[in-house]
Design goal:
CATH architecture of the largest domain: Alpha-Beta Complex
Bound molecules: hexanoyl-coenzyme A
Oligomer: single chain
Distance between the termini: 67 Å
Number of helices: 19
CATH class of the largest domain: Alpha Beta
Helix content: 25-40%
Radius of gyration: 26 Å
CATH topology of the largest domain: 2-enoyl-CoA Hydratase, Chain A, domain 1
Strand content: 15-25%
């Protein structure tokens, strides 16, 4: 063999060694736990053959605890870039088969390199997390690596989309990198996130709790609101990421990429004219309206199980991405409470940061009364949504389907806080409060049942309709529900070139 052939042979060997990660035994263990390896995950996530790996031969530089005798190429994380539907993305995937995917100084440096590249090239960053946390043998070096990543997560926020999949353990301070990113996707039964694990919880608070109860996908999906999406399997999670990337632009200077569409822009749905019940106290499912009006009835819902009284998610109209925010009358009558305000405020800010127009469907009886809400700070949490809508400069299209009462009317993308096109259905009731409550406050004198009913009727006729607001120009047009899709598409076309900026400042002071 010539010396040149030897050199090529060596490269092939090195590649093979690196690709074997922590070895077949550990790969088998990973599979037995229902998990894929880092490279398998990347292959599922990215377009076939598109992934380019960087820093494959990087090894750690630790000399403590005999680590100098144990070096594995790649050092527990696979990093590089590839494509999702032909669009560039940067990816890191922690390799649990190598030192439990734990974070060493060199492992962190590999992640930092692609984070810097993602910012330089203006492309999304996708992190596939599966790690035992800080490399215990490296101490402060590992903590420094984490903090360097956190810093870049913050600097990248609002510049490039950042998406985190949790595909195994993610504990301690390690949770804070995903927490800063825009979306967290977890997998049922095989992933968990917590700041302190069940043993520490037991020692400190004497609570008995399993890993799954404390930080599994269902907990974070429905109770804490930490996870935005939950998948049934890793493959499902990775497909969700691909779908999500399709709705969002690569960076804050781009518009979302238009998709080819075949759905008729003039499609009317007569059944929508009977969606809103006659009885204003009766619920209905706002998702029926959403599914009916969007392209191909395709709605990509975010956080479906957390604060279900507010629906958020992505869809397209005439091929253009929008973010939909909608009160859900089917859940707590669509009331605004702490969780629904925080959930939707963050979503509104994401859409605004990435030039995604907002379509808001309003049926809201107001803010949820009660001590638990007041003590929990509904004032500052509700203010987040108000703040988010007011500062959003993307096109804002609003449709009031039924109730728009009190402060909640103002908050939900009203004309007064910058709504560009504000529609209402003939069934809309835009008032300070519901007719029954209003009459009880303004008419203190004793009345017979019949007189009370008359007064309520009078209030309803005067205010519980869209016409007072339309007369004042606060509603641009009263539309038939069947026309909703066409009207939204018209409004999106009209606002297409909207360019607006808020006063220059270092940053605002959103009520956190
Ligand atoms: C070094 C680690 C490691 C770590 C796991 N390994 N975690 N090596 N540093 N943090 C190694 C193990 O030694 C083992 O190596 C291999 O990874 C697989 O680990 P197992 O324990 O066999 O796997 P499993 O039974 O599935 O348990 C997974 C685990 C457990 C629950 C994650 O490994 C674990 O509890 N690890 C320690 C978690 C932890 O306390 N991390 C530090 C938290 S503090 P071999 O060679 O046997 O295959 C932290 C702070 C971050 O992270 C702060 C940021 C600001």
């Amino acid at each position: 063999m010539s010396s040149q052939q030897n050199k090529y042979e060596r490269l092939t060997e090195r590649n093979k060694e690196a690709e074997a990660g922590g070895g077949q035994d550990r790969i088998d263990r990973q599979h037995a736990a229902g998990r894929n390896t880092a490279r398998e995950r990347i292959a599922i996530l990215t377009d076939p053959g598109s992934f380019v790996e960087l820093d494959k031969f990087v090894v750690h530089r630790s000399h403590d605890f005999g680590m100098e005798k144990s070096k594995i190429q790649g050092d527990g994380v696979v990093t590089g870039y590839g494509k999702v539907d032909g669009r560039l993305v940067y990816v890191y995937a922690q390799d649990f088969t190598v030192f439990g995917g734990s974070m060493s100084r060199t492992n962190a440096n590999k992640i930092l390199k692609i984070m810097d590249l993602a910012m330089k090239m203006g492309a999304p960053l996708i992190g596939l997390n599966d790690s035992g946390g800080a490399r215990i043998q490296e101490g402060i070096e590992s903590l420094a690596g984490y903090a360097d990543i956190f810093y870049r997560n913050v600097m990248s926020s609002g510049v490039i989309p950042q998406i985190s999949a949790i595909l195994g353990p993610c504990a301690g301070g390690a949770v804070y990198s995903p927490a800063i990113t825009d979306f967290i996707i977890m997998v049922k039964d095989t992933s968990y996130m917590f700041v302190t694990g069940p043993e520490v919880v037991k020692a400190v608070t004497h609570e008995d709790v399993t890993k799954e109860e404390l930080g599994g996908a269902s907990t974070h999906h429905s109770v804490s609101g930490v996870a935005h999406l939950t998948a049934d399997s890793e493959e499902h999670a990775l497909m969700m990421i691909r779908e999500l990337v399709g709705y969002i632009p690569s960076n804050n200077l781009e518009e979302p990429h238009p998709h080819p569409f075949t759905d008729d822009v003039n499609r009317e749905d007569e059944s929508l004219n009977s969606l809103i019940p006659e009885d204003p106290n009766k619920a209905y499912d706002i998702k029926e309206l959403i599914h009916s009006i969007v392209d191909d009835h395709n709605f990509f819902e975010i956080q479906p199980a957390f604060a279900p009284n507010m629906i958020i998610g992505f869809a397209r109209f005439a091929g253009r991405s929008v973010g939909i925010v909608a009160n859900q009358p089917n859940s707590l009558a669509g009331v605004l409470d702490i969780n629904s305000s925080v959930k939707s405020a963050r979503f509104v800010r994401f859409c605004d940061a990435f030039n995604i127009p907002l379509v808001t469907l309003v049926d809201v009886p107001g803010f949820l009364p009660g001590t638990s809400q007041e003590y929990g700070g509904i004032i500052r949490h509700g203010a987040k949504l108000l703040y988010a809508y007011a500062e959003a400069t993307v096109p804002k299209i609003t449709i009031i389907t039924r109730k728009a009462y009190g402060g909640a009317y103002d908050v939900m993308s009203s004309k007064h806080i910058g709504g560009d096109v504000n529609y209402a259905y003939p069934t809309a009731e835009i008032a300070v409060m519901g007719a029954d409550g209003a009459v009880k406050i303004i008419s203190r004198e004793k009345m017979t049942e019949a007189e009370l009913a008359d007064k309520i009727e009078e209030y309803r006729d005067t205010f519980a309709n869209p016409y007072k607001a339309a007369e004042l120009g606060y509603i641009d047009e009263v539309i038939f529900p069947a026309q909703t899709r066409t009207k939204i598409i018209q409004a999106l076309e009209m606002t297409q070139n909207k360019h607006m900026s808020n006063p220059l400042k270092k940053h605002g002071n959103i009520p956190l």
